[in-house]
Amino acid sequence: xxxxxxxxxxxxxxxxxxxxxxxxxxxxxxxxxxxxxxxxxxxxxxxxxxxxxxxxxxxxxxxxxxxxxxxxxxxxxxxxxxxxxxxxxxxxxxxxxxxxxxxxxxxxxxxxxxxxxxxxxxxxxxxxxxxxxxxxxxxxxxxxxxxxxxxxxxxxxxxxxxxxxxxxxxxxxxxxxxxxxxxxxxxxxxxxxxxxxxxxxxxxxxxxxxxxxxxxxxxx
Length: 220
Hints:
Layout: H1 7-27, E1 36-37, H2 39-46, H3 50-63, E2 66-68, E3 74-76, H4 81-104, H5 108-122, H6 129-145, H7 150-170, H8 180-192, H9 195-213
Antiparallel strand pairs: 1-3, 2-3
Helix pairs in contact: 1-3, 2-3, 4-6, 4-7, 4-8, 4-9, 5-6, 5-8, 6-7, 8-9
């Protein structure tokens, strides 16, 4: 029995691992907005070739997590106040559609129960800041997934990296934005079947978050 060479598979695997490692480092705040990402240093740290790192960085550029600097190097994207507000306007549109679909769904009661569980996770006081960010992101993704519209959920996931980087860049002073009490009114309105109320509550939620996150980053 002969075994086919795995060169191509290995190369692909390295590229994906490098991409996952760099993406995770950025969204976890290991690399801050504005930090330059040097191919040589990254390649040495990851134990891969510069070409592999270059491909990973190119993908992250497409995701909007890194951007070219004046010197031609790539750096972690630093979102302006306008970009943050635009990001949350798109979030409001996507999640507004999600609540409309949820209210009209015959599975609304089950969805509400699942969302209540996600709200409870937000109030776990034993979690650190990163875990609270994870719980916040999980709530909003669940909202979109429960809508039953797979394209909506996919569109939200494409924004997830930018959302997380924005939150991480603001510091722990923004933790109130991720509390259960801040999210519960959204679920209450969905449970009540009030489309207008649900949309208004969600819009206020996004507007307030955008206003806070677009301000100066707090020292943490």
